Amino acid sequence: MKRQIPLIIVMSLGFLFFAHTFIPHKFSQDFYDWYVSWTKAMSPFAVILGIMSLFMVHTTKIQRKVPNWQYSFVTLGALVFTAFAGFAWGTNEGTPFMWLFKNVQMPMSATMFSLLAFYIASAAYKAFRARSAQATVLLIAAIIVMLGQVPLGQIISKWIPITSTWILNVPNLAAKRGIMTGVGLGMVATSLKIILGIERTYLGGGD
Amino acid sequence: MNFFDRMQNLDRRWIYLVVALAIIVPLLIPFNSKTYTTEPSENVYKMIDSFAGKDNKAILMCVSHDASTIAELFPMEVSVLRHCFERDIKVFTICFMPQSAPLVDYAINTAKEDFPNIKSGVNYCNFGYKPYSLFLPILLGMGDNIGEAVETDAEGRKVENLEIMENIRNYEDLNLVMDFSASGSVISWITYARVKFGVNVAAGITAVMAADNYPYLQSGQLIGMLSGLKGAAEYEKMVDVFAAKGKAFSKETINNTWIKITGNDIPTKFKKARIGMNAQSIAHIMIIVFIILGNIGYFVNKNKKKG
User: Fold this and answer.
1) How far apart are CA A146 and CA A161, in angstroms?
2) Considering the domain boundaries, does residue B268 fall inside one?
């Protein structure tokens, strides 16, 4: 039963939504609206589940004193304090919540993302080698696109931004469309396998 | 160990140091470099500008990113808002990520500081954060009635009662949606709002994600795109050259105009992307130099081994 009930839910709802897409009847639209109202009710439970999960994972880490367990205190403290600041004083400009967002969240997130520049520079230096004809084409294309993205490219030659745009508009586009078509077909195949009960890995292992 | 061997085994911390200097120095000491505009950015500008002074036209800015990508996307948002405030264009904002909500407030507050007559609910309206589970119902609902779909704005007011909603009912009036994101979220606007209601869709996107959107740009499903810091810098320049002076867009003028960013005429907040482009230019050059040096070392060592 543990496997059959989820399979029945997935199969029946899968076929229903498939039918809804192709049947523009009022009954079909009403069913969809009814479903949407349920999804509104479901999302708060997802938030509660996420908070519970976060607390359970980090309290377990603290109790077992796993390596770097001290950081779990920071995570839980930040969660409680930020939520408290938002509930107590609101989230508008000039509130403690906004101060935390501007002075803690924003610089930390931006710092994490900006580390990418250092890794790209290091990886480009260590690994970007013209070892084969394909690697050479990739290398030349990368240099042209990088130059095309900055004013210097235009100053060197008007052909650099033109070539850069051509690379993005022709070979890049062809590859992207190929990938997107492949992904689309793969999604259809996987969805069908799930709806028909052939693909069951989402149910998890064991009995 | 010769020079090339040393270069091949260079400690990565030296590379980090050079990249850090290449980025920090131009940010601290801005210099003037010409910003060249591209067609996708120009198309976004022209479309938004075509709504200038029209009571029955508006744009919607959907902010779908968190603070990690503000360096690229925040200057775009401020520039687009500034354009709307300069040219009396009705603008709405919305976000479906909780992390985006403070960014929307921050962008609006940054842009409107210089426009004392701009009022919430009259010239602009922030719909605020809506849970992601409501994304599709709101997106589709706005095709019929924006007031009913969104219900309340960020300040808790009934949207349909706001002055800005006069002559704005659905996508026929709210005729441009611009999605700012570091992901492929703009595709949802194309798939549903564009296909079903014919609304114009534009994207403001990080440079790494730009390549993914070229198919939609070429097919015309995206009317234009601001890609990365370059797109933001281009938009800043167009707003300075045309919107701030009340002029209509002209390709010839934009190509021949050189806006200096080292003077004090333009507030820093309105030239952040152009200052950032200086750092990006130097960083790109450094990376190219590193790649070339690495390859020279590779071929010298390869020939030595053969010999």
Assistant:
1) 9
2) no
Q: What is the pLDDT of residue A205?
A: 63
DSSP A73: H
Q: How many CB atoms lie within 10 A of CB B238?
A: 26
Question: Do the chains contact at B67 and A147, CB–CB below 8 Å?
Answer: no
pLDDT band of A207, cuts 50, 70, 90: very low
Contact B134, B162 (CB under 8 A): no
**Mutate which of A20, A125, A140, A180 to disrupt the B interface (most B C-beta within 10 Å)?**
A125
Same domain, B125 and B190: yes
Regarding whether A62 and A114 lie in a shared domain, the answer is no
Is there a single domain that holds both residue B11 and residue B98?
Answer: no
Domain count along chain A: 2
A168 interfaces chain B, CB cutoff of 8 Å: yes
The reply to whether A103 touches chain B by the CB within 8 Å rule is no
Residue A207 lies in a domain: no
Domain that holds residue B138: 39-257
Q: Are residues B216 and B291 in the same domain?
A: no
- The pLDDT of residue B123 is 96
Residues A2 and A84 in one domain: yes
Beta carbons of B178 and B60 less than 8 angstroms apart: yes
Domain identity same for A6 and A63: yes
C-alpha separations of A105 from A82, A109, B67, B129, B276 in Å: 10, 6, 7, 18, 21
Pairs of residues, one from chain A and one from chain B, whose beta carbons lie less than 8 Å apart: 140
Q: Are residues A122 and A53 in the same domain?
A: no
Q: Evaluate if residue A154 carries a pLDDT over 90.
A: no
Statement to judge: residues B120 and B83 lie in one domain: yes
B135 located within any domain: yes
Residues from chain A contacting residue B148 (CB–CB below 8 Å): none
Predicted complex ipTM = 0.81
CA nearest B121: which of B108, B106, B135?
A: B108
Note whether residue A139 is domain-resident. no
Work out the mean pLDDT of chain A and round it to a whole number.
88
Chain B residue with minimum CA distance to A104: B67
| Chain A interface, best mutation among B13, B18, B19, by max A CB count within 10 A | B19
Phi, psi of B237 (to 5 degrees): -65, -45
| Domain presence at residue B265 | no
Residues of chain B with Cβ-Cβ distance to A149 below 8 Å are: 207, 228, 230, 280, 284
Q: Report which of residues A38 and B80 the model is more confident about.
A: B80
In terms of residue numbers, what domain contains A79? Answer: 1-89
Residue linked to tokens 């996708």: B40
Q: What is the mean pLDDT of each run of 10 residues along chain B (307 residues)?
A: 76 90 92 89 97 95 93 96 96 93 92 94 95 86 92 93 95 96 91 93 93 90 95 95 92 86 84 92 90 87 80
